[in-house]
Design goal:
Layout: H1 26-30, E1 41-46, E2 64-72, H2 78-86, E3 104-110, H3 129-136, E4 140-147, E5 160-164, H4 168-178, E6 184-185, E7 211-216, H5 217-222, H6 238-256
Parallel strand pairs: 2-3, 2-4, 4-7, 5-6
Antiparallel strand pairs: 1-3, 5-7
Helix pairs in contact: 2-6, 4-6
């Protein structure tokens, strides 16, 4: 897929960067001088299988994708959550045996020693070809994000999650299942993190809808014994797995609806 711009055969206008973002799209970030994949950032995904590959692919039958558009050091903990919700242990990538299936997944990760917020591309401007292809090929998607307690409309220090996106059925299932986990399910979200734009990558599914989970910093910090890039995959706490199980249950119920 070409970058949105004057030479774009689809005639799209260049994406304007969010006021707090340096880059207007993933394409713009990938082309930036001084940024190299594997050094400053990483791209990881399980590609959507072609029809002929499905018999041999464990994700060939799924209609669900899991995304972490701001993984690594940008919104810490979302990479590990993305892998686990998709059905893989974040440390070993061993597949889950909970019977709730394996899902397609995609993540963009910041690898800088500091200042990873500079690599944030708002989800409505995500134009990574793999992310777009994966989402276009499924009916359901959930994106994992990080936010502050204030952004979630909660007091400082609150371990809370904001449930957004355009898939009302999936939102309700997530709200029901996550209510069983010892976290606060925020009752309201400001418009900046409610995930209701049709251009949000989580909503660019074949059904035109998906879900977005915004986890506050205290919630993500409480999920790991060692909250560092190297430590998080190996020190997941029970809260992490309770959250993952609830999310996977909601996704399984949505797919069966």
């Amino acid at each position: 897929m070409t970058a949105a711009g004057a030479g774009d055969p689809a005639g799209r206008r260049p994406r304007r960067a969010h006021p707090t973002d340096r880059y207007g799209s993933n394409t713009e970030l990938y082309a930036a001088p001084g940024l190299a994949e594997g050094t400053e950032y990483a791209l990881r995904c399980c590609h959507r299988c072609a029809p002929g590959d499905r018999p041999a692919c464990p994700t060939g039958r799924t209609q669900t994708a899991v995304l972490a558009p701001h993984g690594g050091g940008i919104e810490a903990g979302t990479s590990e959550l993305c892998l686990a919700v998709a059905g893989h242990h974040p440390a070993t990538l061993e597949p889950s045996t909970d019977g709730k299936g394996l899902h397609h997944w995609w993540m963009f990760e910041g690898l800088l020693g500091a200042g990873n917020a500079a690599l944030h591309v708002t989800s409505v401007n995500c134009d990574d070809p793999s992310a777009e292809s994966i989402c276009a090929g499924v009916r359901h998607a959930v994106a994992l994000h990080g936010c502050t307690a204030a952004q979630a409309g909660e007091p400082d220090g609150t371990a809370a999650v904001v449930i957004g996106g355009l898939d009302g059925t999936l939102r309700d299932l997530l709200r029901r299942e996550l209510a069983k986990v010892p976290v606060t399910v925020a009752r309201r979200a400001n418009g900046a993190i409610d995930g209701t734009s049709p251009r949000n990558i989580c909503n660019r599914t074949s059904s035109g809808a998906g879900a977005q989970l915004e986890l506050t910093t205290p919630l993500r910090e409480a999920m790991f014994g060692t909250n560092t890039p190297a430590g998080r995959p190996h020190t997941t706490r029970p809260l992490f797995w309770d959250f993952v199980s609830a999310t996977r249950t909601a996704l399984a119920l949505r797919a069966a609806a």
